[in-house]
Sequence to fold (219 residues):
Amino acid sequence: MTPNQVTVARILAAFLAVGLFRLGAHVFALDLTAVALTVTAIALDGVDGYLARTRGLATLLGAKFDVLGDRVVENLFFTCFAASGLISLWVPVLFFVRGAVTDLLSGLARRTRLGPNQGAGWRQALVASRTSRACYAAMKCICFCYLGFLLSVRDAAPTEFDRWSAAAGASWPLGMAQAITLLTVAFCIVRAIPVVWEGRRYLTAPQQVPKGAAVVLGR
Fold:
């Protein structure tokens, strides 16, 4: 498979996982399949980049498509859970804004004369190290799987689930869902801080416009 095909595969896996979580209604086989697809969608995030590097298939389009795949998967899961009422609507909004800002700064870094800034060692380790990427992927995977399973349980018996959740001392599953989501959001924001801090220089750097290229002014 090519790296772009892997990216398409993980996007499809994410869509199938969300669909099964919504349609499974606490059917164990469907829930288990949805969890497996969720893990697959997250795990394949590192496969496309590995194939691109080892097989010499890295392209600018592939790199952008990989980032697009990340954004689609993240926002797909979080939007589904927010629309279902399990988490706040601000969670997918925050992930969308965070992704838009960091992608903008990454694009400016490639277009300016300054070139990419790797920053201090700790900043580089926080943003781009394998450990950081693995921890972030694991947190998203746990968050998506737990929220998906909880959604399936609720859809199976909504009235009983609401009554049980409102009972004294029985709301810990929802509390855990909020805690896991909060930790994932917090780590997402922390990983973006160095990118935004280093990217401030690109906003004031002179832009190189190719000779003869048309300049479009946005409003």
